[in-house]
Design brief:
This protein is mostly beta strands and 185 residues long. The protein contains 3 helices and 12 strands, in the order βββββαββββββαβα.
Length: 185
C-alpha cells in the first residue's frame, strides 16, 4: 500500500527483464517500492542502485521500459501516518500527456481519458506515475489535474512532454463501488 506522496526520483534503465534504478534511500531485497506507481520488489541493492525483476504483465501495462527518470515511494508502514490517497501500486495502464498551461502558481496538465472513464471523476483521485492527484476537470476525451510547483519540482511530472505516456491507477474506492453496483443487478 502506498499514499502517492513521492519520496524521490531516480534515474532508471531497463534491460532484459530487469529495471535498474538509482535509489537515494536505503532498501533491502524483498522491499516493495512504487516505481512510477508500479509496486515492484527489490531483488538487489548495491547501496546506490536497486534492481527489480519486471514481468510481462507489468511491461504491458506500464511505461517502465522507456522511463528514464522515475518517481519512487517506499511502501507505507502499518504504523505510519497516512498522507495522500490510497494507492495500491497496481497500475491499470498508460495514458498520454496532452498539454499544460500555467496560471499563477498552478500548472494545469491535460491527459487523455483512460478506457476506465467511469473511474475518472471531477474531485476524484487518480495516480499518475505514482503521484496521487485530484482530477480538477473532465472534458470529453481528456481530464485535467492541477499541479503545484512543489510537485513539479519533486516528481517527474515536470519533465513530461506532450505525447509521452504516464502510468495511471484508478481510485481503488471507485473500483470497488463499480463492482458492487455491477454485481448487485
Amino acid at each position: 500500500m502506498f499514499s502517492g506522496i513521492v519520496e524521490a526520483t531516480g534515474k532508471a534503465r531497463y534491460s532484459a527483464g530487469k529495471l535498474h534504478v538509482e535509489v537515494p534511500f536505503e532498501v533491502r531485497p524483498g522491499d516493495s517500492v512504487a516505481v512510477n506507481g508500479a509496486c515492484l520488489t527489490v531483488v538487489d541493492f548495491d547501496g546506490k542502485e536497486a534492481t527489480f525483476d519486471i514481468g510481462e504483465e507489468t511491461l504491458a501495462r506500464t511505461n517502465l521500459r522507456e522511463a528514464k527518470v522515475v518517481n519512487l515511494e517506499r511502501a507505507m508502514p502499518a504504523s505510519g501516518r497516512f498522507n495522500g490517497h490510497i494507492v495500491t501500486g497496481h497500475v491499470d495502464g498508460t495514458v498520454r500527456f496532452i498539454a499544460k498551461r500555467t496560471s499563477g502558481n498552478t500548472t494545469w496538465m491535460a491527459f487523455e481519458m483512460p478506457p476506465e472513464r467511469w473511474g475518472v471523476a471531477e474531485k476524484g483521485s487518480i495516480a499518475l506515475n505514482g503521484v496521487s492527484l485530484t482530477v480538477a476537470r473532465v472534458e470529453g476525451s481528456r481530464f485535467w489535474i492541477q499541479v503545484i510547483p512543489y510537485t513539479l519540482e519533486k516528481t517527474n511530472l515536470g519533465l513530461l512532454r506532450p505525447g509521452e505516456r504516464v502510468n495511471y491507477e484508478i481510485d481503488i474506492i471507485a473500483r470497488y463501488v463499480r463492482e458492487i453496483i455491477a454485481n448487485s443487478k
